[in-house]
Specification:
By secondary structure, this protein is an alpha+beta fold. The protein is about 55% helix and about 15% strand.
Length: about 190
């Protein structure tokens, strides 16, 4: 299951808000759950990201709503989805950020709101079980210090290169952040420095 948080940049009337809910229900059918938190809207759905991007683009162009949309990754557990949803929703509402784009996934959203919050707020949310794993943090810091070069990092850590790659891939699997990707590395670097 995925979710969207829709934040209106300008105040909308209740009738417009109801029309938007009706739009999503008609377009997506019964496979959605709508949670109303005026002035925002949370929609839980089972559609893939590409389908949802098309829906949001249609909404932006045809209905002329000035909105910002956060789209989550897929969750297998309702508890995990709700925990993630509450965190993002609270950050979204507390941010004084003027969002320059209309569509955000988790990484793009965190990059946008980093300057509004202390990195510590995101640390446990992003690092999860690696929050207090000093061995993994040392590996990542060494990887960043060596400019994301696996050969130099493995030599400095006295670790086989394949072992290092396996640890990085495990980190990616557990957190959803691939430190070999610039944006992911930027987020993780700022959280562990």
């Amino acid at each position: 299951m995925h979710y969207l948080i829709i934040k209106f940049k300008k105040e909308v009337k209740k009738a417009e808000y109801d029309n938007l809910i009706l739009f999503f229900k008609q377009l997506l059918g019964m496979n959605i759950t709508v949670k109303e938190f005026l002035p925002n809207l949370i929609i839980e759905h089972d559609y893939d990201d590409l389908e949802m991007i098309e829906v949001i683009e249609s909404l932006q162009s045809e209905l002329v709503y000035d909105i910002v949309v956060f789209s989550s990754k897929k969750f297998t557990s309702i508890a995990e989805l709700e925990e993630h949803q509450n965190f993002i929703y609270n950050v979204f509402n507390r941010s004084d950020n003027n969002f320059y784009d209309y569509f955000y996934d988790e990484k793009k959203f965190i990059m946008q709101v980093f300057k509004d919050f202390d990195y510590k707020l995101f640390k446990s949310f992003v690092l999860k079980k690696y929050l207090n794993d000093q061995v993994m943090i040392d590996i990542l810091q060494t990887f960043f210090k060596n400019n994301l070069n696996t050969k130099k990092t493995s030599e400095e850590l006295f670790m086989h290169r394949n072992t290092l790659i396996n640890k990085i891939e495990k980190f990616n699997y557990d957190t959803g952040y691939d430190v070999r990707n610039f944006y992911d590395a930027y987020i993780i670097y700022n959280l562990i420095k």
